[in-house]
Design brief:
about 90 residues, alpha+beta, Ubiquitin-like (UB roll), five-stranded mixed beta sheet, two-stranded antiparallel ribbon, 2 helices, Molybdopterin synthase sulfur carrier subunit, Beta-grasp_dom_sf, ThiS/MoaD-like, Sulfur_Carrier/Prot_Modifier
Length: about 90
Amino acid sequence: MAIDVRIPTILRTYTDGAKAVEGSGGTLDELFTDLESRHPGIRARLVDGGSLRRFVNVYLNDEDVRFLDGIGTPVGDGDSVTILPAVAGGSA
């Protein structure tokens, strides 16, 4: 088994259009490093320094990782990670 990672439309250029990819690792940080090895450039879109980018939301099994351990959140086989860009704006 592996970790299922759901990719938003805006990042699918890094995954050759795939809506979901598989990865492995013990933490989100390790998972993103694993994804980078097969999908170059994706990690930089998710991580800034040692933390998640401000406008990227990541959910582990439907839980926001910002309320867990952020990029250090443990992950394992069978988990589902969803990456969503933050949406903002609108008219006044």
